[in-house]
Design brief:
Low-confidence stretches: none
CATH superfamily: Ribosomal protein S18
Radius of gyration: 12 Å
Number of helices: 4
Number of domains: 1
Shape: globular
Order of helices and strands: HHHH
Strand content: under 5%
CATH class: Few Secondary Structures
CATH architecture: Irregular
Bound molecules: zinc ion
Length: 69
């Protein structure tokens, strides 16, 4: 299993660095689950929270309309 991205870089997920949290969104802008991302339980919980907050601030879209009709 891949090492947790946030543990490896010794950072915490934050909406302020949404380039980092955006990596954990699927092409359809769904949050990638822990099994696929390799993020640890602690950071996955923080990540989910930060993604929701980033969406609230309109930094990230709720859904992607790319490739959809
Ligand atoms: Zn971690």
């Amino acid at each position: 299993m891949a090492k947790c991205f946030f543990c490896e870089h010794k950072i915490d997920p934050t909406y302020k660095e949404f380039e980092n949290i955006e990596k954990f969104l699927s092409p359809r802008k769904k949050i990638i689950n822990r099994e696929r991302s390799g993020v640890c339980a602690k950071h996955q919980r923080m990540l989910t929270h930060e993604i929701k907050y980033a969406r609230f601030l309109a930094l990230l879209p709720y859904v992607s309309y790319q490739g959809m009709k």
